[in-house]
Specification:
The chain has 156 residues and is mainly α. Helix content is 66%, strand content 0%. Helix 2 runs antiparallel to helix 5, helix 3 packs across helix 4 and helix 4 runs antiparallel to helix 5.
């Protein structure tokens, strides 16, 4: 039996791909596996929010409500959204920006409601609002969109 010869054409190098992207006018993306500090920050915020939602879901199991188990499981399933987004942002996956943006936009009215409460809830509202605004800023920053490979559109 004869072996088939290997393809003699060389693999394109990362430098060649970068120079091709630069010559085409496309923004250079961060290499896969090396997220930018802004992506890491956005991932940390999404992860923190996801852990907070998961903790809320676990505490729901211990309420005296007859729907406690179902409500707790529902909240735990909802916690998967920001946790998956945090994982995707940490790995610089393009799809993760959408769920992370959704989570930040949902956190803003929750924070607003908490701010109009009383007691320690107000402090939680301030913290959640600050996290949501910081997350939004990090997620829409041009270097984040470049690192995720999302093309920015320019208007003439």
């Amino acid at each position: 039996m004869s072996q088939s010869p290997r393809d003699p054409s060389p693999e394109p190098s990362a430098a060649a791909a970068t120079s091709a992207a630069a010559s085409s006018g496309a923004p250079a993306a961060a290499p896969a596996g090396r997220p930018t500090p802004r992506l890491i920050g956005a991932a940390a915020i999404a992860g923190l929010e996801g852990l907070a939602v998961a903790a809320w879901g676990v505490t729901m199991f211990f309420t005296d409500s007859h729907n406690a188990v179902l409500a707790g499981l529902t909240v735990l399933v909802l916690a998967a959204l920001p946790l998956a987004a945090a994982h995707g942002l940490r790995k610089a996956r393009r799809w993760s920006r959408g769920p992370a943006l959704i989570m930040q936009l949902l956190a803003l009215p929750i924070a607003w409601t908490m701010l109009h409460s009383s007691g320690a809830v107000v402090g939680g509202g301030v913290f959640l609002g600050a996290l949501a605004i910081a997350g939004l800023v990090l997620l829409v920053h041009p270097s984040t969109t470049d690192a995720l490979g999302i093309r920015r559109t320019t208007t003439p």
